[in-house]
Design goal:
Blueprint (H helix, E strand, L loop, with lengths): L3 E3 L1 H13 L5 H17 L9 H10 L9 E6 L2 E5 L5 H19 L1 E9 L6 H9 L3 E6 L5 E2 L6 E3 L4 E7 L2 E8 L6 H10 L8 E2 L14 E2 L4 H21 L24 E8 L7 H17 L14 H13 L1 E3 L1 H6 L4
Parallel strand pairs: 3-4
Antiparallel strand pairs: 1-13, 2-3, 4-12, 5-8, 5-12, 6-7, 8-9, 10-11
Helix pairs in contact: 1-2, 2-4, 4-5
Protein name: Malate/lactate/ureidoglycolate dehydrogenase, LDH2 family
Organism: Aureimonas jatrophae
GO molecular function, one term: oxidoreductase activity
Amino acid sequence: MNTIVIAADRLRQGLEEALGRTGASAESVAAARRAMMHASLLGVDSHGARLVAHYCQVLASGRVNPTPTLSVRRTGPSTAMVDGDNGLGHLVAYRAVEVAVDLARESGIGAVGATRSSHFGAAGAYARVIAEAGLVGFATTNSDSVVALFGGATPFHGTNPLAFAAPVGAGRPWLLDMATSSIPLNRVLLYRSLGSDLPEGVAADAAGQPTREAEAATMLLPLGGPGFGFKGAALAGVATLFAALLTGSTLDPDFIPMVGTADMSTPRGMGHFVLALDPDRFGGRDAFAAGIGAYLAMLRASPAADGSAPVLAPGDREWAVEAERLANGIPLDPDTAAFLGFG
């Protein structure tokens, strides 16, 4: 693929400078940079640095408030709501995580909804922080309709990610971050930028027919493929249940599209949901640590079907990619590299 490799520190600085030029608050810039670097370092390129141009656009156009005043409303012993004041979703979600962690340390469980937010990038960025605090985490959001239902011919759900993470002693967290669509929409946009064909069975054209042409793709297909897409379609509804219905936020079909619309000034009213669980309040932290250690050891020791490739736990590939990219740099698509001034 036609990419330009940039050192992590240089990319981090470039993101900060680009976002800073929009007049966004320092904490907004820091949160967006943190979330994008999480994605770019772990190989989730569709949700990493390539989104910086979009975020700069919505900050400048009025869709996103560059200097929001977030507020937190405690609703119960272990629950709360965060009002994002239409700020960057990264800032809103990280604030929700902070509140959830505090609640879990106090009550054992921290469940936090967020409203009046915007696109927050990779859901795993937030579940990861919960795990790094020694807790079990979950993060989700819903988004605008770009994914067909199983057997459907028009978009209905968003890509609606579900992310889970858990602490693993002195090791890196167990981390699962998955879209409920076949692939994220931003991956289609990335493939367009790179001029590459899509994999089979992940997207459809305006007539609802599967296509590998990134330029012709107008909707995604649900996770599970032609025979089992009902699973992905149902899981997308789980994200809507937590992020929109519980929080009183926007339903997937009611969203202003993230891209491809003339209206870049009206806030989209996104909702998020995060959950933190303290192992001490269940079977105990020692039992959890021993259990997840044994579980992962058995999983990784399981023989591979081809007899050579190792079996991986969720997060293993991502942490390996992070180590490689920290050492050798992060690949950027040409459009993003040009936007950030990297030649």
